[in-house]
Amino acid sequence: MNHIETLSRYTANFVDELTKSGVTDVVISPGSRSTPLALTFTEHSSIKEWVIIDERSAAFFAMGIAKQTNRPVALICTSGTAAANYFPAIVEAHYSRVPLIVLTADRPHELRDVGAPQAIEQIKLYGDYVKWFHEMALPEGTPEMLGYARNKAARAVYMAQEGNPGPLHLNFPFREPLNPDFSLRNLWESPATQQQTQSVNPVFDGKKRLAAQHVQQLVKTLGDGQKGVIVCGPQTDPDFASAVTELARIWGLPVLADPLSQVRTGSHHKDQVIESYDAFLRNKSIREQLKPDYIIRFGAMPVSKAYLFYVKENKDSKQYLVENYTGYREPTGNITEFIFADPVMLCEDLIAGSAAFDVDTGWLNRWQEMNSISKKHLLSGTEAAITEGEVVRGLCDVIPEDSTLYVGNSMAIRDVDSFLMTTPKNISILANRGANGIDGMISSGVGAATTGKPVTLLLGDLSFFHDMNGLLAAKHYKLNITILLVNNNGGGIFSFLPQSNDKKHFEALFGTPVDIEFENAITMYGGEYALATTEDHLKELLYTSYQHEGLSVIEVKTDRNENVEWHRAKWHAIEKGILQEGD
Fold first, then answer.
1. Which residues fall within 8 angstroms of residue 400, CB to CB, at 6 or more apart?
2. Residue 201 domain-assigned?
3. Which residue from 205, 279, 405, 521 has the fewest beta carbons nearer than 10 Å?
4. Cα angle 90, 94, 99; round to 5
């Protein structure tokens, strides 16, 4: 078997095994050394390939696909700094538990550390941010080595999804020549079997469930009229919302639902969902009125900083954190009991074990009353010039059923936390809240749009500037996405922080205005552009954008200082309304 046949069969067996293990999408950035992988993936009939020129954009694009589909996505790049450009997205995927299969091409061993061009140290390049690293063997054509290639592919797909999902890294050294021969007979079959109808390593992986005695212990500890709080942080399980709200109904508890918990949207029971806790928990005296006996949190830490204050001030309350698998996401430092079990099964088991619960209705009523007062103020009033809160209000009114809202960090996610109220619409809310960076947001949103499901991306001007080249994929693949760009000409969130008091250095170091006419960039990438001036005008433009095929960008221009005052006025009115009600 000559070099080309060896290279072709080795790479074909690896790629074919990925598809048999469930991979359907690959994101490729052009390069020479990755030719064997790029061409073989593109030639395979079961793979949809996406070509994204810039590697940083490509990695976030892949993450958007993986978040939307809940399936691993493969990434391919050439050797050298191309692989380093994947790093920001890999860090985000690590912390937000997104399955990515990173395949980097490399120089063969004899060309490493000798001054060869485009050769950097790629062994364990991503450190502990990947679940698994493996340096692939140089291609060989023996049945044993073709079986090796299939085994590593199957293991990669399993590892990306096993336990807490995440990224992994396989490094492929290739010698020249690099072009495979796709005319070879039985190219996609392993010579060991002459056929390959399923994965070489099928996996049957069950869910974790607490033992009956542990469920009974929890019910006994938390039972009969205690003042508990259920907190739902970011998570994506579509069955969770119904299960947790049913548990709350039976136990008579408030549900503090982060917008990324998927609990605020959908057809499940929502009478006990508290959406506006961030607004009223900002006040210390209100927090003191709501001292809980226990807190049960499902999923990651919520976005709300006010909730963080609430938890820290109640460190003597019993606290529980429910995770599907092992992990430690408890930044408060409070004494916390960890429950490692499937959240849906846990809710069902707790319900089954607590039929005779007595409920303190007054406790739930207080939360609901405060939530009602907060919602009244948050949803009232219309300004002559649209505010950032009104942007989210208007968006929530018209966003289509069965669509995705992808949210940027900084002010965007915080305004969604404040102004996204419960709705029967089936809307999934996604964000990059692992490392909470502003990079890669356009690419992530555009990646989510590859499934054909309507996507609205809400982000600020700095996030937009940071990833404008992500618009190329929307143009190239004619993807349908509406981008709602809130332009306050800088880092609006810093205006809420103590740094804003430093008038000498604030604008240069924190405000960072970019003074860009984004319409020109949008037109360059073939997008439709519109500028919204009022909340009603925004709704009209959004509705029109959802009828348009391709890229639509609606810009809203706001003033950072006015935005701070508007938000603070809302919070003050909420505090005043709740405290007066208490008197």
1. 454, 546
2. no
3. 205
4. 80
